[in-house]
Amino acid sequence: MTLHxxxxxxxxxxxxxxxxxMLIDGKWTDGEVGLEGERVSPxxxxxxxxxxxxxxxxxxxxxxxxxxxxHRGPWPRMKAADRAAVLLKTADLIDARRxxxxxxxxxxSGKPISQARGEIAGAADIWxxxxxxxxxxxxxxYANLGDDMLGVVLREPxxxxxxxxxxxxxxxxxxxxxxxALAAGCTTVVKPSEMTxxxxxxxxxxxMQAGLPEGVCNIVLGTGPExxxxxxxxxxxxxxxxxxxxxxxxxxxxxxxxxxxxVAMELGGKNAQIVFPDADLEAAVDAAVFGAFFNAGECCNAxxxxxxxxxxxxxxxxxxxxxxxxxxxxDPLDDATKVGAIITPEHLKKIENAVVDATADGASVxxxxxxxxxxxxxxxxxxxxxxxxxxxxxxxEEVFGPVLSVLEFERVEEALRLADLTDYGLSAGVWxxxxxxxxxxxxSVRTGxxxxxxxxxxxxxxxxxxxxxxxxxxxLGRNAVEDFSEAKTIQFHRGxxxxxxxxx
Length: 504
Ligand code: NAD
Known about the structure:
7-stranded mixed beta sheet, binds nicotinamide-adenine-dinucleotide, 6-stranded mixed beta sheet, 22% strand, alpha/beta, 504 residues
């Protein structure tokens, strides 16, 4: 496989590297210590962004601004209708800048531009959905506690929320958190990945333009240890919502425990697509190719394990390989590209090593297996590993690259055992025309989402999140705003209480 990267496309996409600043208390600012970062496009091998990076002092400034905005600013106190109006305006401004934002995500993360456009449109839709929820958030009342008592349960914003996001869906993932926190009346400190910060800065510009009061959304740029860890440890932060690796997620939960913060975690996955012989096999083949190679496999939801019935395994794999060979790997800025670049050279090495280790464990490489590195960046050929056994690392651990592991089964119970053998529980797919088989699998697997005869669709209306070590809590869905609120119970007594504790 050869790579053809047209430098003209990148020139069109950027007018030289822009330098991005942080947003603290409504003002654009450099860090107090003067740290700097830069991003080399993984698909083009040249510097495309420079950033002002922050440190503990900037986290302190941002948290103080968010705290002030929470206690004294208008945002938590204004009508939900007015908050919703800001979210709706934000969605319109995202739509207006869709192409620019999509290009930033494509050149910084290496994802295909056509896919990035879909993500930005999807993000705008989520902002609109959050606006609708802002107006329906409500508490409860209890008029059944006796004639002189009325119990009221208010939903109050949780307070200052730290939002930490990864590099694989930079603009989409912040949209799964920030609009719901804002809809609830919270104030926020946001940290994007240090590798893909540009689109989150553009979101900050949009929020200011949409009329978000200063201090309500602060954006601090920088690394996990220099910025993220302080956003988790700070005493004045009430909640941390984090999307990233299970390893950092666990450390984050531990650190947040020191001050008993509320936590929401969206972590890794090792998701199975289980295919039965009675399925529409053509549709299943296409979904298996999509599931394994979408976003170059750098996707928490990747269908990185195919659990295929022995009776159809040979034909299915032949059809899979034929289709996979037609997947266009290449320049993220080419409209026809389906698999773009790998995030860093180090990550490419990790993916390649996972394949080498699998072969050392006794598995075979049926397709691909090697990376493509050149001055134009780093890419990985779509890869299929067959003969995978349940105890191999490739069957259990997240590779986070375009690598499919194939396991075979004969009985439903065996398929279920294979599906659940990992520590993860994010999502699964089942392919069968038989309602009993589909229902048995869908109800048995321990994952937060199950797709039946489809894969990786997403809707703001449907909750998303993981069981087991894939996370804590759910994003999206009708409870998404409630998750950024606290219940406060108020008991109203009619007249003074007359049952004395100490009798006169
Ligand atoms: P990562 O855990 O390395 O980093 C995620 C974020 O945490 C980044 O912003 C990083 O700077 C920050 N961070 C790093 N160390 C930190 C620390 N000590 N304290 C606070 N913050 C810290 O993850 P990544 O490599 O950016 O993303 C890939 C991972 O994210 C994969 O495991 C993937 O499965 C997961 N992911 C999960 C979902 C989901 O919804 N479940 C979605 C996308 C990605």
